[in-house]
Amino acid sequence: MSVRVQMPPILRPVAGGERWMDAEGATIAAVLADLAKKHPALGLHLFDEHGAVRRNIVCLHDGQAIRSKEAAARAVRSGDDIVLTNALAGG
Amino acid sequence: MAVSLVVGTPKGAAILTSKDRKSWSENFVLQGWPVTASARDDKGRIYAAVNSPNYGVALFVSDDLQNWKQLESAPRYKPEDRGNPEHHRIVSQMDFEGVLKGGGRFVDQIWTMHWAHGALYAGVSEAGLFISRDYGASWQPVDGFNNHPTRDSWVPGFGGLGAHTILSDAKNPNRMWVGVSAAGFFRTDDGGKTWAPKNKGVDPAVEAAPATTGQCVHHVAHDPANANLMFRQEHRGVHRSDDGGDTWRVMEDGLPVAELSDGHRCSFGFAMVVDRKTGKPFVVPLNGDNFRFPRDGQLAVYRSDDGKSWAAHTSGLPGKCYTAILRGSMAADQLDPGGIYFGTASGAIYGSADLGESWREIATGLPRILSVEAYAA
Q1: How many Cβ pairs closer than 8 A exist between chain A and B?
Q2: pTM for this one?
Q3: Which strands make up the sheet holding B217-223, listed edge to edge?
Q4: Strand, helix or coil for residue B82
Q5: Rg of chain A over CA atoms, in angstroms?
Q6: Among A45, A46, A49, whose Cβ lies nearest the Cβ of B106?
Q7: Whole-angstrom Cα distance, residue B285 to residue B348?
Q8: pLDDT per residue over B272-313, tens digit each?
Q9: CA B299 – CA B237 distance, rounded (Å)
Q10: Which of B31, B52, B54, B125 has the most A C-beta neighbours within 10 Å, making it the best mutation to test the interface with A?
């Protein structure tokens, strides 16, 4: 599946500076893994040392907020847009 | 006499640069990243450590302090490493998904970096030591330290279980020291294979703590060329060692003494640095663990000229300062005469170009100052 991922501003300089990045994968976790493979520096920010999607990462997909634990089971379709963001905290 | 300061804050790094140590220019880089430590290698490149509760720990490197590139590797524990439950409890504020309940060990912050004998070291939280022999391209855990036989007895300090101090011996590449809050001070004499606690003469942080590894070391400073003379700011006072940490004795003559929460009286503080040309140590005492700001609000830097006693230097420093100076936020430029710099938890940087005799505010309005390093050109 070929999808687009919108990067949060702070991570864009780590992976070329683009707002939208193309990636492949059948699930959100697989899409993030594809990004990590193409951009190892970015991968440090997406996955922890246990190989899990970082705990506070949230992906917006099809009008739903997909939390890190749900990323491996969330299927995507070709042409989908995924917004990579994080849990809201602070004020 | 050109000097650059790399000032770490929760919102990026301030780069303060001066050609004469009087007039300073300021630039704010790595915006949005909490910057916790920096170091310089033998090629003059500067490394900056960042951490983010959302996006983890990483390292950036720069040749000119303006343009930064993230490295593709960072210190990371092995999946099988077991974490410290008390540390997890302290750092779990942002653990919305309960990941830490799984019991793993994670690198959640780089507290300090150190270049020595052709390698870059990182001291991290949850407490551990990592080494890179290829300028940060890859990192390996120092297993002799990270899996220390006493590790199960280590108790986190208020800021978690962190390895915040790394020191080296310029004449002996096999000898290094690491300080951990609140497990004390450790030394290796075999290149990192084994580490011995070096806390003799220093009281444990609390009575119930282990006598050999219950010390809450806040910072230790020395000259790597005269490595065995060490000064130590402990939760329980300021100490000196003349034998590389084998033994310690209290050295507080002239320092303000405060009552700690448990009734113990000593000179409390965090920041400490040594000027290598003169061998003189500097500390910034705070008024005990309950208050954590300078006594009566008078910001004062204390210097020891004889290695036995201390004297206050306040010229140019504010008399109404009710904030802390954190452990990593003091640095020396090692020029002659020595420049000393420190930052406050309320975002001010003070500098002295005359070994602390007089001070001036060289930056203000910054976020909380987490780290300061000084690099002479």
Answers
A1: 65
A2: 0.96
A3: B217-223, B226-234, B237-241, B249-250
A4: strand
A5: 12
A6: A49
A7: 17
A8: 999 999 999 999 999 999 999 999 999 999 999 999 999 999
A9: 18
A10: B54
From B31, which residue of chain A is nearest by alpha-carbon distance? A10
Chain A residues with at least one Cβ partner in B under 8 Å: 9-11, 13-14, 40-41, 44-46, 48-52, 54-57, 67-69, 86-87, 89
Give tens-digit pLDDT for B175-201. 999 999 999 999 999 999 999 999 999
- Considering only alpha carbons, which residue of chain B is nearest residue A89? B94
Residues of B in contact with A52 (CB under 8 A): 99
Under 8 Å CB-to-CB from B245, ≥6 apart: which residues? B177, B185, B187, B198, B220, B230
Distance from CA of B54 to the nearest CA of A (A): 5
End-to-end, the C-alpha distance of chain A in Å comes to 37
Residue B134 backbone dihedrals phi, psi, to 5 degrees: -130, 40
Nearest CA in chain A to B82: A50
Identity of the residue numbered B304:
S
Chain A CA closest to residue B80:
A50
- Classify residue B338 by its DSSP letter: P
Closest CA to A16 of B55, B57, B74, B69: B69
Are the beta carbons of B197 and B140 closer than 8 angstroms? no
Our measurement of the distance from residue B253's CA atom to the centroid of its chain's CA atoms, rounded to an integer in Å, reads 24
Residue located via tokens 């504010």: B318
Residues of B in contact with A87 (CB under 8 A): 54, 96
| Nearest CA-CA partner of B139 in B235, B30, B49 | B49
- Which one-letter amino acid corresponds to residue B22? K
Length of chain B: 377
Query: Given B54, B72, B97, which is nearest A67 (Cβ)?
Result: B97
The CA–CA distances, whole Å, from B364 to B19, B323, B328, B349 equal 19, 14, 18, 6
- ipTM here: 0.92
